[in-house]
Write a structure and sequence with these properties.
Strand order of the largest sheet: 1-2-3-4
Helix content: under 10%
Number of domains: 2
Radius of gyration: 16 Å
Low-confidence stretches: 71-91
Mean pLDDT: 84
Length: 195
């Protein structure tokens, strides 16, 4: 099963698609597809312990994705929804979670190690700041330097009980606002916040 195609903003002949399924069981999740040549090829060739997902095209034509420890995916009987984790045994794992940027050929061009997990990410115009949704808050993550730095933006108050109640924060095209969803108050609504 594959998610809908995501077409490159400045080249409608190139798209990505994601092979769905449990993150730790799908051996290659993100693919690139050329509509002219009808060729498909892996975007960031996954290794044995990779758990890749949440891909999107950046405004400058890179494919953004995150790679996390497989055990952090999905709900847990002990902890409930795992939208984000800062107390998961990140330091005890041999795999370091990261976010990455891949070029149009699928080659990794930048890797940023992450000392925490968010459920979803989205990058600003120049790929220097991410917005992420953790369990309780929207966070801004500065990735302009060698180490990621996290700052709380606001509390989103969503329940995570359904897929539509996931925040999925997204930068506006001009970078002036962030759009996200929350079911605070009982219904899923969209909210705009300035970073």
């Amino acid at each position: 099963m594959a998610e809908p195609l995501s077409v490159l903003p400045d080249n409608p002949t190139l798209a990505t698609f994601c092979h769905e399924g449990p993150w730790h069981l799908v051996t290659q999740r993100i693919w690139l597809l050329d509509f002219v040549s009808h060729e498909a090829w892996p975007c960031f060739r996954q290794g044995e312990h990779d758990s890749i997902g949440h891909e999107f095209w950046t405004q400058d034509g890179y494919v953004f994705f995150d790679d996390r420890v497989p055990a952090t995916m999905g709900p847990s009987p002990q902890t409930g929804p795992r939208a984000v984790a800062t107390d998961v045994a990140v330091k005890q794992s041999t795999m370091i979670p990261f976010v990455g940027l891949a070029d149009r050929k699928g080659n990794l061009v930048r890797r940023i190690d992450m000392p925490y997990y968010c459920n979803h990410y989205h990058a600003n115009r120049d790929n220097t700041v991410l917005v992420g949704d953790d369990v309780d808050d929207l966070v801004l993550i500065d990735i302009s330097g060698d180490e990621a730095k996290l700052r709380v933006l606001c509390n989103h108050k969503t329940s995570w009980h359904t897929q539509s109640a996931h925040c999925h924060p997204t930068w506006s095209w001009d970078g002036s606002r962030i759009l996200y969803a929350s079911d605070h108050g009982g219904r899923v609504n969209l909210y705009l916040v300035e970073p």
